[in-house]
Amino acid sequence: MADSSNGPASxxxxxxxxxxxxxxxxxxxxxxxLRLVIFPFLLCLVLNLIQVLVNRELDKxxxxxGCTCVDTDGDGKCEEKCGIEYSSMDQAPFCPIPSPPEWPPxxxxxxxxYRAVQADFIPFEDLPSDSCKKTNSCxxxxxxxxxxxxxxxxxxxxxxxxxxxxxxxxIFYSMANNVLGSASKPDVSNFIEPAFSSDLPLYYLQEHCAxxxxxxxxxxxxxxxxxxEISCIRGLNLWxxxxxxxxxxxxxxxxxxxxxxxxxxxxAAYDFLNTDTTxxxxxxWYNSTYKNDSGNTPFSSTRxxxxxxxxxxxxxxxxxxxxxxxxxxxxxxxxxxxxxIRLDFSSLLGPLFFTWVILQLFPVVLTSLVYEKQKRxxxxxxxxxxxxxxxxxxxxxxxxxxxxxxxxxxxxxxxLIGLNFFKLNxxxxxxxxxxxxxxxxxxxxxxxxxxxxxxxxxxxxGYVIVFGTGLLGGFLFQFFLQDSSFPxxxxxxxxxxxxFSLYRGLYEFAQYAFAGTYMGTVGMRWKDLSDGNNGMxxxxxxxxxxxxxxxxxxxxxxxxxxxxxxxxxxxxxxxHSSFRKPSLERQGSKVFVQMERSDVLQEREKVEQxxxxxxxxxxxxxxxxKKVYPGRDGNPExxxxxxxxxxxxxxxxxxxxxxxxxxKTSFINMMTGLIKPSSGTAYVGGLDIRNQMSSIYxxxxxxxxxxxxxxxxxxxxxxxxxxxxxNLKGAALTQAVEDSLKSVNLFHGGVADKQAGKYSGxxxxxxxxxxxxxxxxxxxxxxxxxxxxxxxxxxxxxNVVKRAKQHTAIILTTHSMEEAEHLCDRLGIFVDxxxxxxxxxxxxxxxxxxxxxxxxxxxxDHEAEVExxxxxxxxxxxxxxxxxxxxxxxxxxxxxxxADVFQAVEKAKSRFTVHAWGVADTTLEDVFIKxxxxxxxxxxxx
Length: 942
Ligand SMILES: *[C@@H]1O[C@H](CO)[C@@H](O)[C@H](O)[C@H]1NC(C)=O
Ligand SMILES: *[C@@H]1O[C@H](CO)[C@@H](O)[C@H](O)[C@H]1NC(C)=O
Ligand SMILES: *[C@@H]1O[C@H](CO)[C@@H](O)[C@H](O)[C@H]1NC(C)=O
Ligand SMILES: *[C@@H]1O[C@H](CO)[C@@H](O)[C@H](O)[C@H]1NC(C)=O
Ligand SMILES: *[C@@H]1O[C@H](CO)[C@@H](O)[C@H](O)[C@H]1NC(C)=O
Hints:
Elements: H1 11-28, H2 30-58, E1 67-70, E2 79-82, E3 106-108, E4 140-145, H3 149-157, H4 171-174, E5 180-182, H5 194-197, E6 202-206, E7 215-221, E8 224-239, H6 243-253, E9 268-271, E10 283-285, H7 305-320, H8 345-359, H9 361-374, H10 377-383, H11 388-416, H12 420-424, H13 427-449, H14 455-482, H15 488-495, H16 498-519, H17 536-563, H18 590-595, H19 598-612, E11 618-629, E12 638-649, E13 653-657, H20 664-671, E14 679-684, E15 687-688, H21 693-697, E16 700-703, H22 715-725, H23 730-743, H24 761-773, E17 779-783, H25 791-805, E18 809-813, H26 817-823, E19 826-831, E20 834-839, H27 841-848, E21 851-858, H28 863-873, E22 878-883, E23 886-892, H29 898-911, E24 914-921, H30 924-941
One 2-acetamido-2-deoxy-beta-D-glucopyranose (NAG) binds next to loops.
């Protein structure tokens, strides 16, 4: 076996051990890993599939400029012709329009049922009476005001023509001399003014309409020709005393503005302000909110200029007389090339899907951390020398590496299958964003892991967070993002939750990718971060700060929780005095000292002697170690360990016996650094357990009562890991692991390479013992090592412990007297927090024995006779046990001879039936029961 003087494992050795263990562990979890990797691939493929389907749909003829087959030269063969003239109305918007058509400018006319009439909520009597609504012949109203009434009235007179001026040979072009209007809905694109293709009539405004003034005309617009009914409509110019009156009237007439439900719509309203002969100053009310009931609001920009022209024209005529005119003949849109609709679905669904994809790493990290906590593996590793530094470094870098690989694969895959979400946005922004986020996520998992102790709960909570965040993000948070009236501050507050900042970032990528796809440009670039609407900058800042804060808090709380240090541990100075004079303040222990038996007292004196010597070779020295749990809920304080002094050299196995609840576990927990002693201390190899625990761990082995093993790692991998932590390397490590496996009978038949989760209870136990002994630690604690073992395994286990004992101090707790007798050089019986006696098994038996145990079973009727018989043998015999005819007595050795006992039994047999009888020397078990009883009786009395 390798020498134990390897010294503590260096940082890199520990890191290496942990890394190898983690990689193996990950390899084993192949199913969850597969699921983890397949999920994003699946989502990407789904997105791609949707994209392909949508693209195919958009490539259909109804979403592109139309083509028809026409026979141009009459030879019976047709030629494919494309363009706006061969397209349906649906297709037309996609066609190229190199030279757009022109048409006379129109006014927006309210629909007949909405035109302004007299109503009780409006004080003006000059409006038409509402009887006109029945015949759909209501006039349309124009309101005017200004500072000079005379001037205003003369302007108003020339705004609406008094007659129709038409050149019959060219109706379309002479339209511009009249004031045309339409009640049809405007459109976003005005390549063809919808008024001309609408079923609604075109109107021409007139001061008075003759009956029968409608006519129909064919209007050529671009290549098409529209048959259109054109009717006269009366225009009413009404003067108001102030602009506020007009405002009020417009407000009250708005379709949804008044409570009566009445509607009074106005064509346009003019305020001529201070206009006079030298100055034309006018402000015009127009209605831009004509819209479809479906909710989109096309702005009828082409129907506003006509109202401006009306005013200018009137002013020109006021200045120069009715002969002059500002003609506003035609309007037309600018030409455009052929366009196609392109929708990027990865951008539409990306934020939701990718939030899931990236967030799902969170439960992975979380459960992995909680697993080691739930199974107390973290403590187990720590007790075998794994420092906090390497644990944090390696675990963190490991998860970071895992997440990074995952993200790189994901983004690469998404780009390869052609998702614009990834392709259009700058990869360096994506890299920065994802990198900061995964760091934040890992830190958050470390922080949150502290509040979970069960893997199942952690998993469930983790996935609820994943899906919940995605859904809340997609259906609530995004809604807030798009609502520009929602306070930005609250968005920032919501983004403090990492899931939402992730969603926001992905949302911004999606916005840029979508716009980029639609317009055929690129996505987000670094310079776009300064754009006020782009939330990426704030998200990056929030996440970076949060990452550092969360990481610090997580590390800090881990230190507090896992080491039980006080919350201000970094303020306190560490004392590095390795050896301390025994403390003299021992007033509290006096009572116990007095009642302690001489053997326990002797041990205490030995310890005090040893502590005064500067050099000693004891492996363990406990110096009046105490543990008091503070009283809770009105209960008194609980003394778990009441001043234990013990010295143990290397090569000795000390057995600790005691009933349940005697304080053995508290003692072991103090020695292994899980809890702090209330007073007193212990030295392991000269190092103080109060402040040099991390050095002690490197030469310590623990076999806990419950097996702390990774279910998916094999026995060999466990030993390799702990061997590395004990600074074994190369061939020495392989050899040590092999020896260790052989010694606990786990080597043959492939057992060593089976996963520990599939081991039987006994095999797990043996593996735990092997772990505690690997690397030849100076001190080993074994908590009931042979529980649940079959006799064969138990005896082979005992051999292992015996062999290990040669260079190691072992403290062993057990309930098996046989085991104690077999393995231990000295025994201590621990009752109610203190040692009742201490010595080697033979001594104890001699000291507490001194009597024979006589057992006899008869029928119940003869119990009294048996008792008489025993009294005759020895008057001071004690009955220790009696149940349905079976009685047990202790007979003092000095009063009784074995031969007398036999004679007495023969005599008894002749008088009544004896079912069974026996006489035996005291066993360790009897000693144990006696000592335990005695101590408890004392405590009851006191
Ligand atoms: C109003 O306008 C008329 C003619 O347009 C002008 O004669 C008159 O002086 C103006 N009145 C005022 C108060 O400016
Ligand atoms: C009517 O239009 C035709 C064709 O543009 C033109 O030749 C003719 O002079 C016009 N007549 C009047 C009265 O403007
Ligand atoms: C507007 O002013 C004229 C002249 O001052 C006055 O007669 C009329 O009552 C006023 N109209 C309203 C509604 O105040
Ligand atoms: C302006 O247009 C909207 C939408 O068609 C209509 O509801 C509203 O009544 C109009 N307002 C006026 C003052 O005409
Ligand atoms: C136009 O009218 C407004 C409002 O009365 C006034 O503030 C502005 O000075 C006028 N403009 C001119 C050039 O007189």
